[in-house]
Design brief:
The structure holds two protein chains of two kinds.
Chain A (H helix, E strand, L loop, with lengths): L5 E2 L7 E8 L2 E9 L2 E8 L6 E2 L8 E6 L5 E9 L2 E8 L5 E4 L9 E5 L5 E8 L2 E8 L6 E2 L4 E8 L5 E6 L6 E6 L6 E2 L7 E6 L5 E7 L4 E7 L6 E2 L7 E6 L5 E8 L2 E8 L2
Parallel strand pairs in A: 12-14
Antiparallel strand pairs in A: 1-24, 2-3, 3-4, 4-5, 6-7, 7-8, 8-9, 10-11, 11-12, 12-13, 14-15, 15-16, 16-17, 18-19, 19-20, 20-21, 22-23, 23-24
Chain B lengths: L16 H5 L14 H5 L5 E6 L18 H4 L4 E3 L6 E3 L3 H4 L6 E6 L6 H10 L12 H9 L7 E4 L26 E5 L5 E2 L17 H14 L2 H6 L2 H9 L3 H7 L6 H7 L3 H15 L3 E5 L21 H26 L6 E6 L3 E2 L11 E2 L3 E6 L8 E2 L16 H11 L4 H6 L14
Parallel strand pairs in B: 1-8, 1-9, 4-13, 5-6, 5-8
Antiparallel strand pairs in B: 2-3, 4-12, 6-7, 9-12, 10-11
The chains are: A mainly beta, B alpha/beta.
């Protein structure tokens, strides 16, 4: 275990998708019951998380916020294998929805443009699973990739690029593209599945999950894949990295002794 | 090769002989094979079935095809297992490291692509009749072994398996009646057990009862409040539940707080993990047949459903996110735990779903139902660790070797649990279906 790991929660319940809202606040999802995932809010330094939407009756997960936290988006389970993207104004609660259609349909892993211009996400298509984006009102859908399984898109802090993972060259690996889908480049060439990239606040590095040797661990690298640094090394799963706005630490979900909690770890 | 219609069970007044054959008649090796090898290993005091409800993709788990085209092989890499030449997807490193402890069947087939029907076939070995349901393998063994202090057939889960449409008929006693239904026990991610049949008892639960005296007091109090006629209406299941909490062995088995913390941690804080630990404790206490349901519902992401393996959409997100890591940890922990206690000698462990998933990735970047080919994993009772039974074609679309039918699965379970073909014939269950002798 990295000696700088600090445990932020202690209940051990399955957790996913932490994101920083402000310097001292995290929103994440938790498996509240066997059938419902709920969005939770945790202030750093406090022991107890509170419900973001206390009245939610169905699973909500994968939150993403604009840089000023004025608007956020999340995935909501609405029907049988049917997942909608909800875009909500934080102050008024006014919602826009991107509904990918009836039947088995949905979006996963949304990422809000830092200035709130668009939300990108993974969405199934006949060509594979693609990265697409919609405006903050849920309209004007644009598909940004073609072919393979593409997932876990993440807008850069300046909104000009998107990091994501794709199987276009074989197995799931890190890639980068312009926000309009052009100029796709692979980030490094690592063996083993890579998942869930997230950006350092200055846009110079990525943190991501790498299934390197049988464990999911958090690593960071420069945007060309060089400067690889291992962040976690517990022998159990470390996943869902979120970079602290101060750039000096990463929060992640650590499975430690079979329990799932949020941890904070220093990064260089 | 398999004329499904010819095996349709007619269960009026019993189960037809043809239904017993369940695929065996079309298999060239069906008859005349020595069963001594299986009989030699017929020492399963307990059977633990891990029911992977919703149907895991065989290609994305234990029968990967890394050389197939991208629209078949999927996006996961493969890893070497402890068995030379055997590869799993990269989602299962712990199980790969223990491949020498179990046998893998890669040529299972089912006869229906519908969850509820395939589930019934998978757990009974027989097709459903129009107005009849065959008994679950656990119900058969329960009837053979007879009721003792502990329930002979326990099902661990939130409820009996179903989907959003309705229940699966093969969950229990079928036409034999509710006396042969499983005794249902729920288990949360923190290991709190719950017995639905005790709901009548004003919230009584194993955790709330710390000694026999207190329990009996609570039951006496309930007795005074309840109308005697209500008790008469209780089913055998409810009466057994009532009696169960007066049995110290059973209450001890149901109380996971008595387990070492390190063991609880090894299984992990998930419902499936703690359920499998509970299964081991029940086996240790002498329960003959325990079925652990991965989920109550098949549906993977549906309101009020509990994350089954039915991944028609987002298969390649759900598996690395949730299903793969949980199953990898829990199956490995169960094998380790049983082995360290010397229980693998007399405990049969079987993990399987009701079918596989489509080799070709569908229009939703995922996989649909595929009963033509899937996997099962077998451990304990002398089963050859590291053995790979059967083979699938280059796209995992069909077995290249003799298909392993649900009837053969059931016959093997029952044979290992001490029900030879004669005993099965007496109950008119799978008497002529062959045992999977390749496992030994």
């Amino acid at each position: 275990m990295n000696s700088s790991e600090t445990r932020l929660t202690t209940d051990g319940t399955q957790k996913f998708d932490p994101v920083f809202v402000k310097n001292d606040e995290i929103v994440f999802s938790v498996l509240e019951s066997a059938v419902q995932t709920r969005l939770m809010r945790l202030k750093l330094g406090e022991k107890t998380a509170t419900k973001l939407h206390a009245d939610a009756l169905t699973s909500e997960f994968e939150p993403t916020f604009t840089a000023d936290a004025s608007t956020y988006a999340f995935v909501q389970s609405k029907g049988n294998l049917n997942l909608k993207l909800v875009i909500r104004d934080a102050a008024s609660g006014k919602e826009a929805v991107f509904d990918p259609g009836g039947g088995f349909a949905g979006v996963r892993r949304p990422s809000f443009h830092p200035k709130g211009e668009r939300v990108c996400f993974g969405i199934p298509a006949p060509t594979g699973q693609e990265i697409a984006s919609v405006g903050r009102d849920g309209s004007n859908r644009k598909t940004l990739t073609t072919g393979g399984i593409n997932n876990w898109p993440a807008y850069s802090p300046d909104g000009k690029r998107i990091a994501f993972c794709s199987s276009r060259d074989g197995t799931l690996a890190l890639y980068m593209m312009n926000a309009d889908g052009t100029n796709v480049k692979r980030v490094g060439k690592l063996d083993g599945m890579q998942l869930r990239p997230c950006w350092s606040p200055d846009g110079s590095r990525l943190a991501f999950t790498w299934n390197r040797d049988g464990h999911y661990d958090i690593f960071t690298s420069k945007l060309d894949g060089s400067g690889l640094v291992r962040v976690t090394e517990s022998g159990e799963r470390s996943d869902y990295a979120a970079w602290h706005p101060d750039g000096r630490s990463v929060v992640f979900v650590g499975e430690r002794k079979g329990k799932f909690d949020l941890y904070k770890v220093d990064v260089k | 090769m398999f004329e499904v219609g010819s095996f349709r069970a007619s269960l009026h007044g019993g189960i037809s002989r043809r239904a017993f054959l369940t695929g065996a008649a079309s298999a060239p090796l069906a008859f005349g094979l020595p069963t001594a090898s299986a009989k030699e290993h017929a020492k399963a005091k307990s059977v633990i079935v891990l029911w992977l409800w919703g149907a895991p993709s065989h290609l994305d788990t234990f029968d990967p095809k890394p050389n197939a085209p991208a629209d078949i092989r999927g996006p996961f890499g493969t890893i070497q297992t402890k068995t030379t030449g055997l590869r799993f997807t990269e989602l299962f490193p712990k199980i790969a490291a223990r491949s020498d402890q179990f046998a893998l069947v890669r040529s299972n087939v089912n006869f229906d692509g519908d969850h509820l029907k395939a589930g019934s076939i998978g757990l009974t070995g027989m097709l459903e009749g129009k107005d009849a349901a065959a008994p679950n393998f656990g119900s058969v063994l329960a009837r053979h072994r007879g009721a003792k202090e502990l329930p002979p057939f326990v099902s661990i889960g939130r409820g009996n398996p179903r989907d959003v449409v309705g229940p699966m008929r093969g969950y229990g006693g079928g036409n034999w009646g509710r006396n042969y239904d499983p005794f249902l026990v729920g288990c949360t991610d923190t290991g709190e057990t719950d017995i639905p049949a005790l709901k009548l008892l004003d919230g009584l639960s194993p955790a709330a009862i710390d000694d026999r005296k207190k329990l009996l007091g609570a039951l006496d109090s309930l007795n005074k409040k309840a109308d005697a006629r209500d008790f008469e209406k209780w089913t055998a299941t409810e009466k057994r539940a009532y009696a169960l909490l007066t049995t110290p062995e059973a209450r001890k088995a149901l109380d996971l707080t008595q387990e070492k913390q390190s063991v609880r941690e090894a299984y992990g804080q998930t419902s499936f993990g703690q359920s499998c630990l509970l299964a081991r404790r029940l086996a240790q206490a002498g329960v003959p047949y325990i079925q652990v349901n991965w989920s109550q519902y098949v549906e993977a992401m549906t309101p009020n459903c509990d994350f089954g393996w039915d991944t028609h959409i987002f298969n390649f997100d759900l598996l690395p996110d949730r299903h793969g890591p949980i199953f990898d940890r829990v199956f490995a922990a169960l094998l380790d735990d049983l082995r360290e206690r010397g229980m693998l000698e007399n405990t049969l462990v079987l993990a399987m779903g009701e079918f596989g998933r489509t080799p070709r990735i569908n229009g939703q970047a995922s996989r649909d139902h595929w009963p033509q080919c899937y996997f099962s994993m077998w451990a304990g009772c002398g089963i050859r660790g590291g053995a790979v039974i059967g083979d699938s074609d280059k796209t995992a679309s069909a077995p290249l070797t003799e298909p392993i039918t649900p009837g053969m699965v059931g016959a093997t379970i029952l044979e290992l649990a001490g029900m030879d073909s004669q005993a099965r014939a007496e109950l008119r269950v799978l008497p002529e279906t062959r045992v999977i002798h390749e496992l030994f």
